[in-house]
Automatic annotation (TrEMBL):
It comes from the Eukaryota. It comes from Brassica napus. The chain crosses the membrane at residues 35-57. The lineage of its organism: Eukaryota, Viridiplantae, Streptophyta, Embryophyta, Tracheophyta. GO terms for molecular function: ADP binding; NAD+ nucleosidase activity, cyclic ADP-ribose generating. Its EC number is 3.2.2.6. InterPro entries: Apaf_helical, Disease_R_plants, Leu-rich_rpt, Leu-rich_rpt_3, LRR_dom_sf, P-loop_NTPase, TIR_dom, Toll_tir_struct_dom_sf. SUPFAM superfamilies: L domain-like, P-loop containing nucleoside triphosphate hydrolases, Toll/Interleukin receptor TIR domain, Winged helix' DNA-binding domain. Residues 88-252 form the TIR domain. This is ADP-ribosyl cyclase/cyclic ADP-ribose hydrolase. GO terms for biological process: defense response; signal transduction. It is an enzyme of class 3 (hydrolase). It catalyses: NAD(+) + H2O = ADP-D-ribose + nicotinamide + H(+). Keywords: Hydrolase, Leucine-rich repeat, Membrane, NAD, Plant defense, Repeat, Transmembrane, Transmembrane helix. The gene is BnaA08g14760D.
Length: 654
């Protein structure tokens, strides 16, 4: 994840969820060769998150409200291993200071939570008084997760402070998960009650008893040390909101069961198998009333296979009794009585609509472990709604989102299932399948000058073995090829002359090619990755790059120049790190107005950054580590630029 700091208490796990967060300090930091380098954070980047809002729902501002004394407790950084009761009334309790946050954010986050079936506590019926009464305490303790939106005026409200004390006590006593969001405020200021936040807090403390003040201080210090989200670390509001909602949903549906059952080395017992299934199906360790026999029958069919219990539990999650009754006959006929895992997974796959099945196969055969944004960008024109399909697959436990790396991940068995389904499209003629993953079959298809391979849309060689194919016309018959990953040096560089013009993804590691041919047309290209290539330049002419969003040429040490980027108006991420022969960037880079990440680390011969870079006003991250030849003054840079390193001979224009 972006900008994670090193000082945090660790992920907090309860029967709710775990959300990795950003934390602590005035600046981001990056470790390079053992040296921590500060990251300048601009006012513009912070101001962008003025859009960050709050759960509004007619909640009135809670400032200037008094609260009665609450019982003190000793708060620790790490929550105990105990878990909340299974009959939690709510999934998420939000705590915030309404004056500081805007309506837009909360309407968006509530919509996202609703679409992910997350129950958010709304307290608009609780009357505000001088104390947080039994109703609110019950709501806090009856929620699996508390989200604390810490803003600069949060400490101006005794209501908020006492609410926070109750939340932190609940965290200590019953293991409630607490998720802080640091909104336009530094965690250090909260932890030490300093700067503007400290000034507001001291004003609130006037006339209060010392015992009450100490409880507030302990709660603020402890919540600031929990790993949390820092609003300044996010490029846009929608990305942050979706990330939080997806993470919350994943942890509600998946992490609670796994935290209880991760210790299994062998198969669980029958009772444990039922508990595992129920955690995914009902969010508790036992069946809901009226579902006892149905749940037991499903478990008897699935057997004691943890992955099968997870997938089938997710399949039935939220279904009515009639839906269970209608699905069971199909399940009986579809599954082998011994609970064969392939049959269980296939049953869940067969329940998908046609579009979601296609998305499942695309991920299994090509996009597994790829970043969410890249998958959505590359498949945007192939599906009516990639994001919706991704959520469907996640809810059915057919994929998961790695929150540390932001990648879509599918288990090995599910990948095998997807590739088996594709293989069965044409067992004996691989050229008639949609995707090719086997290196031997790929060589066979690329070497056959006569076979019709127009069905192939994706080729994915994941091993680092070379694919031996010397034919210059290897790709000539693959008219519909859209996704190509070919690591290694075994493919004839001249074969690119015949590559499909429908190509959306080209990943060619260690390529021997020195320049793309003049007839190469990247019109539909979304991602270009040529790491460790022998490229000296990409191409001569100006090419249509309107769809290009991700370009990675890192470690191409012979690369001397970039092409005209005047049409790359949607370029999002450009990685040129370790391109040690690169001397300058083209002035047309200023046309990349949507560029957000520019990686130039270890471009040791880079001497010039053109003034037009100032037009790329959306740049959020730029690495200039070890650009030892960059002797000239930089042009005016976008206010949102993050400089990940300072060079002794680098000057910034005012």
């Amino acid at each position: 994840m972006l900008g994670r700091s090193t000082d945090y208490a660790g992920p907090q796990i309860s029967c709710g969820k775990v959300i990795p967060m950003f934390h602590d300090g005035n600046f981001l930091s990056s470790s390079v060769n053992g040296i921590t380098v500060p990251c300048c954070v601009s006012a513009a980047a912070i101001c962008f998150y003025a859009l960050l809002g709050t759960v509004f729902f007619n909640r009135k501002s809670r400032s200037h409200q008094e609260n009665k004394t609450m019982a003190s407790s000793s708060l620790t950084r790490l929550a105990p291993p105990s878990s909340l009761p299974p009959n939690c009334k709510h999934q998420v309790f939000p705590s915030f200071h309404g004056v500081d946050v805007l309506e837009n954010f909360l309407s968006h986050i509530v919509k996202e939570f609703k679409s992910n079936a997350i129950d958010l506590f709304i307290d608009n019926n609780i009357e505000r008084s001088k104390s947080i009464g039994p109703a609110l305490i019950e709501a806090i303790r009856g929620s699996r997760v508390a989200i604390v939106l810490l803003s600069k005026n949060y400490a101006s409200s005794t209501w908020c402070l006492n609410e926070l004390v109750e939340i932190m006590e609940c965290r200590e006593e019953v293991g409630q998960t607490v998720i802080p969001i640091f909104y336009q405020v530094n965690p250090t200021d909260i932890k030490k009650q300093k700067s503007y936040f400290g000034k507001v807090f001291r004003k609130t403390c006037k006339g209060k008893r010392n015992e009450e003040i100490q409880r507030w201080k302990h709660a603020l210090t402890d919540v600031a040390q929990i790993e949390g989200y820092h609003s300044i670390n996010w490029f846009n509001e929608s990305e942050m909101i979706e990330y939080i909602a997806t993470d919350v949903s994943n942890k509600l549906n998946l992490s609670a069961p796994s935290s209880d059952f991760d210790g299994f080395v062998n198969f669980p017992s029958d009772d444990e198998a039922l508990q595992m299934f129920c955690m995914y199906a009902f969010d508790q360790k036992y069946p809901k009333d009226g579902f006892e026999e149905l749940a037991c029958e499903v478990v008897s069919l699935v057997g004691r296979l943890p992955l099968g219990l997870k997938v089938m539990g997710s399949y039935f999650r939220g279904s009515f009794e009639q839906e269970w009754t209608e699905a069971l006959p199909k399940l009986r006929t579809h599954l082998d009585r011994d609970g064969e895992i392939a049959s269980i997974l296939k049953f869940s796959y067969d329940s998908l609509c046609d579009e979601d099945k296609r998305l499942f196969l695309h991920i299994a055969c090509f996009f597994n472990c790829e970043k969410v944004g890249i998958v959505e960008d590359c498949l945007a024109k192939c599906f009516s709604d990639v994001r919706h399909g991704r959520r469907v697959l996640a809810k059915k436990s057919l994929i998961s989102i790695n929150m540390d790396w932001g990648t879509i991940e599918m288990t090995r068995l599910l990948v095998q299932l997807g590739r088996k389904i594709v293989r069965e499209q044409s067992v004996n003629e691989p050229g008639k399948r949609q995707f090719l993953n086997d290196a031997i079959e790929i060589c066979e298809v690329l070497s056959d000058d006569r076979a019709d391979s127009s069905s192939v849309i994706g080729i994915n060689v994941e091993t680092y073995e070379d694919v031996e194919c010397t034919s210059e016309r290897a790709f000539e018959r693959l008219h519909n090829l859209q996704f190509l990953r070919i690591p290694g040096k075994g493919v004839n560089p001249q074969s690119i002359n015949y590559i499909s013009q429908k190509l959306k993804v080209l990943i060619w590691l260690n390529s021997e090619m020195t320049c793309f041919p003049s007839n190469f047309n990247p019109k539909f290209l979304v991602k270009l990755e040529m790491m460790s290539s022998k490229l000296k330049k990409l191409w001569e002419e100006t090419k249509p790059l309107n769809n290009l969003k991700w370009m990675n040429l890192s470690r191409s040490r012979r690369l001397e120049e970039l092409p005209d980027l005047s049409t790359a108006t949607n370029l999002y991420d450009l990685d040129l790190s370790y391109c040690s022969s690169l001397v300058k960037l083209p002035s047309s880079i200023g046309n990349a107005i949507n560029l957000q990440s520019l990686h130039l680390s270890f471009c040791s011969n880079l001497v010039e950054i053109p003034p037009s870079i100032g037009n790329a006003v959306n740049i959020k991250k730029n690495s200039l580590i070890h650009c030892s030849s960059l002797l000239v003054s930089l042009p005016p840079l976008p206010d949102s630029l993050f400089l990940l390193a300072y060079q002794p001979n680098l000057r910034l224009a005012s």
